[in-house]
Design a protein that fits this description.
Layout lengths: L1 E10 L2 E11 L18 E12 L4 E10 L4 E7 L3 E8 L2 E9 L2
Antiparallel strand pairs: 1-2, 2-3, 3-4, 4-7, 5-6
Length: 103
């Protein structure tokens, strides 16, 4: 993951951030009975936004949410209960929490 963020101080010690993140798939191996689909999709582009709180000169808390802009896979599922042919798309989604110590 390579994020590119812009942060704004909206109030004293409170920051909003937003930007883009470029992701690259290094490995598609999954343990157990799982099958990884669309191994050819190596790149993903995500939008992210977050908020940070600067408590004092040493401590800071940060929370970010990332949502993929490109679907990771497209699968046609044949399920007579939901729909005869339903198409499901999965996107990369991440919630990150950080506690930082500055020195």
């Amino acid at each position: 993951s390579l994020p590119a963020l812009i942060s704004w101080e909206i109030f004293t010690s409170i920051y909003l951030s937003g930007g883009l993140e470029l992701n690259y798939l290094l490995s598609a191996d999954a343990p157990g009975n799982f099958q990884v689909l669309d191994k050819d999709r190596k790149f993903d582009l995500s939008a992210l936004f977050g908020i940070a709180f600067d408590f004092n000169e040493h401590w800071m808390a940060d929370m970010r949410y990332t949502h993929g802009l490109l679907p990771l896979s497209n699968i046609a599922v044949f399920d007579q209960v939901i729909a005869p042919e339903a198409e499901y798309k999965w996107y990369n989604q991440t919630l990150q929490l950080a506690l930082q110590y500055k020195f």
